[in-house]
Design brief:
Length: 161
């Protein structure tokens, strides 16, 4: 992890790995993030930058790697997946978050984009399955409850590496 992180830094900063920050643009060159449809959200969630620029310290980088590791628990993976899917960061998955989530998964191209009716039906199905308190949103405990019933989430961590 130290070697991978330091290789993302400019040569002149490699001696100061513990205090350096890797910019988001460099993080997005990692093969694990380059093709991930949630790459910007992943950087946002794991970054502790005061500037909200998605840059990561070595500690942020370690946190990200540990969550995506095979040894992370389903609870930890689902906690971070929820925050990655919470695009506006308000602590709930509402219809706008779910629409963005679906668009990330299906792609933004015309040929793969769902019609308005298909999107509405899919969001309605997601809410029927997940919205236990019927408030029209999915909170973290509801998300974790649904995820706990999904063997694929536990096996693959919910997010592709």
């Amino acid at each position: 992890a130290y070697k991978r992180f330091s290789e993302l830094l400019p040569k002149e900063e490699r001696g100061n790995v513990c205090s350096a920050r890797v910019p988001k643009s460099q993080l997005l060159t990692l093969p694990e993030l380059r093709a991930n449809p949630f790459q910007h959200q992943i950087c946002r969630v794991f970054s502790t930058s005061d500037n909200d620029d998605g840059s990561m310290s070595f500690e942020d980088f370690l946190d990200m790697l540990s969550v995506f590791s095979d040894s992370a628990t389903c609870d930890i993976k689902s906690h971070y997946a929820f925050h990655i899917f919470d695009f506006d960061g308000d602590g709930i998955l509402d219809r706008k978050d779910l629409e963005k989530l679906v668009n990330c998964l299906t792609g933004q191209g015309e040929e793969s984009r769902l019609s308005d009716a298909e999107m509405e039906q899919l969001i309605q199905n997601i809410l029927e399955e997940s919205d236990i308190d019927k408030d029209g949103t999915i909170n973290l405990p509801e998300f974790q409850h649904v995820v706990s019933r999904s063997p694929d989430f536990a096996r693959y961590g919910g997010l592709q590496r």
